[in-house]
Amino acid sequence: MENMENIDWGNLPFGYFKTDYNVRCYWRNGEWGNLEISSSEIINIHIAATCLHYGQESFEGMKAFTGKDGKIRVFRWEENAKRMQNSANGIMMAEIPLDLFKEAIVTVIKLNKKYMPPYGKGASLYIRPLLIGTGPQVGVKPANEYMFLVFVGPVGPYFKEGFKPVNIQLVHDFDRAAPQGTGHIKVGGNYAASLKPGTRAHDEGFASVLFLDSKENNYIDEAGPANFFGIKGNTYITPASDTILPSITNMSLRTLAKDMGMTVEQRQVPIEELAEFDEVGACGTAAVISPIKKIVERKTAKVYDYCKDGKAGPVSTKLYKKLRAIQEGEETDKYGWNLIIE
Ligand SMILES: *Cc1c(COP(=O)(O)O)cnc(C)c1O
Predict the structure, then answer these.
(1) Which of 74, 94, 271, 339 has a beta carbon 3.0–4.6 Å from 27's, enabling a disulfide?
(2) Cα of 168 to ligand 1 centre, how many Å?
(3) Closest ligand 1 atom to Cα of 284
(4) Residue of 152, 134, 154 whose CA lies nearest to 143
(5) Which of 68, 114, 160, 186 is catalytic?
(6) Which residue's CA is the closest to the ligand 1 atom numbered 14?
(7) pLDDT at position 2, please?
């Protein structure tokens, strides 16, 4: 067990961190059992479990913050819970009731309270719910048993050296998800499909990949594990597409943008429009906003440059600060986005 007093919270990576407990719950004979507490990092699983063979797997990601007032706040857990129900439904797994989801995250956070990063370090407690088909099948059928588990771990700030724009690579030769496929739900299979273009982009010096719609290869879809948005004058524009995973961060930014008097558009964004944005960014729980410096189209080597001075744009910065302030209890939570644990 780590001596938490020596932890350099501000420099923790976004990675696995061993804590004391995780929570688990099993769905058998058509119903969920009681939540169980475990101190093991290992699960014992049937060799024919459907999650291993046929990808019956969904996950979630959210964060808890220690606020300015010392209270623990979890950001928009109910949206994650509903999204996980939607994912479960999409690949025929048992849905987790909202109250069970809530009980699981509250329990696991309280049990691991000593791993909760303090206020002001930019760090947070990352919460990872996981739902898997554990029942055996060899024929392609949904499992008859499921396991829901939640583990947590402290993660450092996404931007260790401040809010810094990154370069991303627009690709034509890989798709993240198929039209009418599973792009709109948070399932592991989509991620397996993104590993190859993602690794290539890293090797070629980019922070991530920007995927196009897989039907026409002409509209912006999303940026790997994050949604895409562009700012044009006083308008916040984000792609509408059936293959995009609906980001809760993006949903929150749209609300904040409207609040600031901006117009919000959710519609198709053709590649050519990239030349018209003042600012662009990727958004998701890990970074909130990852401002984009350059988008490089791999096929043509065409470059879209958004910040010649290397700094994030004013609108992205304002949106980022506003959302972070709500998460850390510095700003009134007028939409009731935070669950205060204790
Ligand atoms: C989780 C995820 C996001 C970001 O969603 P948030 O709710 O904002 O964290 C974006 N795209 C994909 C593909 C994802 O899996």
Answers:
(1) 94
(2) 17
(3) 8
(4) 134
(5) 186
(6) 225
(7) 59
Q: Is 287 in the pocket of ligand 1 (CB under 6 A)?
A: no
Atom of ligand 1 nearest to the CA of 286: 9
DSSP class of 177 = S
Question: Cβ(59)–Cβ(328) under 8 Å?
Answer: no
Name the band, by pLDDT with cuts 50, 70 and 90, for residue 158.
Answer: confident
136/199 same-domain check: no
Looking up residue 215, the CATH number of its domain turns out to be 3.20.10.10
Q: Which atom of ligand 1 is nearest to the CA of 285?
A: 9
124 Cβ below 6 A of ligand 1: no
Ligand 1 centroid to Cα of residue 244, in Å, is 9
Q: What is the number of helices (H) and of strands (E) in the chain?
A: 6, 17
Cα distance between residue 178 and residue 180, in whole Å: 6
Task: Please indicate, yes or no, if residue 334 is contained in any of the structural domains.
Answer: no
Query: b vs e for 188-210, b when ≥16 Cβ sit within 10 Å of the residue's Cβ?
Result: bbbeebbeebbebbeeeebbbbb
pLDDT of residue 182: 97
pLDDT, one tens digit per residue, over 96-144 is 999 999 999 999 999 999 999 999 999 999 999 999 999 999 999 999 9
Our answer to whether residue 318 is catalytic in this structure is no
Q: Are residues 108 and 17 in the same domain?
A: yes
Answer yes or no: do 76 and 120 share one domain.
Answer: yes
Q: Is 42 exposed, middle or buried (0-12, 13-18, 19+ CB in 10 A)?
A: exposed
In terms of residue numbers, what domain contains 33? Answer: 4-155
Say if residue 313 is in the same domain as residue 174.
yes
Q: Is residue 126 part of a domain?
A: yes
Whether residue 28 is predicted with pLDDT greater than 70 in this model: the reply is yes
Question: Which residues neighbour 74 within 8 Å (Cβ) at sequence distance 6 or greater?
Answer: 62, 63, 64, 105, 109, 127, 338, 339, 341
- Rounded Cα distance between 314 and 262, Å, is 13
User: Tokens 């590993």, residue?
Assistant: 195
The pLDDT of residue 329 is 96
